[in-house]
Amino acid sequence: MRQRAARDQQRLDSGAVTSPKDLENLQREIVSLAKRQGDLEDVVLEVMERRESAQERVAELTERVGSVQGKVDDAVARRDAAFEEIDAEVATVTKEREVVAAAVPADLLKLYEKLREQQGGVGAAKLYQRTCQGCRQELAITELNEIRAAAPDTVVRCENCRRILVRTAESGL
Asked: Which element (helix H / strand E) includes 131?
């Protein structure tokens, strides 16, 4: 466009165009080209400003992504450490359970495992202040009297949830 405007201006200045109508058309074309060039330069400036703004936003978002990635990496490391700790605790508890299970009679262990499977992982519950901690129901007086009368090594069960009741000093008997 600049070349064309320069060429038209050179033709105008050289005097090669003698017709007033052609001169007028040439001058209008030069003005039109100058206006068009100004409009295009404005568009280019606007695009450059938007590009600069977009680059700043990209830099800001890249920094934020880095920050968030750092937090994610930290959380993953803490999660992995917690998993390791839990796995170690599971191994310890499993060994302890094996020792305790070896001392429990086979028929009682079989009943416990069956109840545990039926009750979502809990086969025995503590009797605490006349309440079964498995189903959180307070036992009736007749049930409590039967439990009081039972021998200490007798297996007693909750009438509501059927779990094995573990009697302690806090049972309220």
From this structure: strand 131-132
